[in-house]
């Protein structure tokens, strides 16, 4: 059976009941129980990822690393943010295939290109939420596979210049991306995001 996104019901940001100014787009969060995925929401594997320290540090000078879906949603509401992921499903993944499970459950993006996938309809989000002015992708670069995944989004933004949407490619909040980090990881990446043009309303 395919490996669907763990939070598939939230991918089109139907949870939003506020005006969104900034949309964060991550990659994928597997639903397979065999992956032992303890995330309670996007970027929720906080033992490996400091997103919920970095972004609250920028906006409110706090850390929500020990939060949960409810706390993180409230933070997003207060700061006009929304979060989704670009991959909705790995359609030909097989949980009984040891190699497939290894590639997906290591939570590393670089092995997901072997699967046929379903892409989240980001243009639909942008068409529905007319107040979005900043799209943040938590990857600094887009190798061929990831560029293909984001192609519809990038083209939509380019073809709708009147919306004046800024695209930010931000350094990964994953602790696996520690190379070059000096001092506290959360502080370092928060400062780096600001240097990379992240805008606070």
What's the helix and strand layout?
Layout (H helix, E strand, L loop, with lengths): L2 E2 L17 E5 L24 H10 L8 H10 L2 E5 L1 E4 L7 H8 L11 E3 L2 H7 L5 E4 L6 H16 L6 E4 L15 H11 L6
Parallel strand pairs: 2-3, 2-6, 6-7
Antiparallel strand pairs: 1-4, 4-5
Instruction: Please report which band the strand proportion falls in: under 5%, 5-15%, 15-25%, 25-35%, 35-45% or over 45%.
Output: 5-15%
Number of strands: 7
Radius of gyration: 16 Å
How many helices in DSSP terms? 6
Q: Main beta sheet, described?
A: 4 strands, parallel
CATH fold title: Uracil-DNA Glycosylase, subunit E
Name the CATH architecture.
3-Layer(aba) Sandwich
Could you give me the name of the CATH homologous superfamily?
A: Uracil-DNA glycosylase-like domain
Q: What's the CATH C level?
A: Alpha Beta
- Widest sheet: strand order? 3-2-6-7
Count of all domains: 1
Uncertain segments of ≥5 residues (pLDDT<50)? Answer: none
- Which structural class do you get from the secondary structure elements? alpha/beta
**SSE series:** EEHHEEHEHEHEH
Cα distance, first to last residue? 42 Å
Helix content: 25-40%
Looking at the structure, what is the overall shape? Answer: globular
| Mean of all residue-level pLDDT scores | 92
What labels describe this entry?
201 residues; alpha/beta; Uracil-DNA Glycosylase, subunit E; four-stranded parallel beta sheet; three-stranded antiparallel beta sheet; 6 helices; 7 strands; globular
What does this protein structure show overall?
With 201 residues, the protein is α/β, with parallel strands linked by helices. The chain has a single domain, classed as 3-Layer(aba) Sandwich (Uracil-DNA Glycosylase, subunit E). It has helices at residues 51-60, 69-78, 98-105, 122-128, 144-159, 185-195; strands at residues 3-4, 22-26, 81-85, 87-90, 117-119, 134-137, 166-169. The strands form 2 sheets. Strands 3-2-6-7 form a 4-stranded parallel β-sheet. It has a 3-stranded antiparallel β-sheet with strand order 1-4-5, with no helix packed on it. α5 links the parallel β6 (134-137) and β7 (166-169). The chain is globular. The model has no long low-confidence stretch (mean pLDDT 92).
């Amino acid at each position: 059976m395919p490996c669907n996104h763990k939070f598939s019901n939230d991918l089109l940001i139907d949870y939003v009941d506020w005006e969104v100014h900034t949309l964060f787009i991550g990659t994928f969060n597997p639903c397979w129980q065999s992956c032992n995925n303890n995330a309670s929401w996007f970027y929720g594997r906080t033992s490996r990822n400091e997103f919920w320290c970095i972004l609250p540090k920028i906006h409110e000078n706090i850390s929500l690393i020990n939060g949960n879906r409810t706390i993180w949603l409230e933070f997003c509401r207060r700061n006009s943010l929304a979060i989704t992921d670009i991959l909705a499903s790995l359609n030909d993944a097989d949980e009984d295939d040891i190699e497939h499970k290894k590639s997906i459950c290591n939570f590393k993006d670089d092995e997901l290109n072997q699967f046929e996938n379903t892409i989240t309809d980001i243009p639909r989000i942008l068409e529905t939420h007319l107040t979005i002015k900043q799209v943040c992708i938590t990857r600094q670069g887009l190798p061929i596979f990831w560029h293909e995944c984001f192609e519809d989004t990038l083209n939509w933004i380019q073809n709708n210049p009147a919306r004046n949407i800024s695209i930010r490619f931000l350094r990964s909040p994953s602790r696996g991306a520690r190379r070059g980090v000096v001092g506290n990881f959360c502080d370092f990446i928060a400062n780096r995001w600001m240097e990379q043009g992240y805008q606070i309303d």
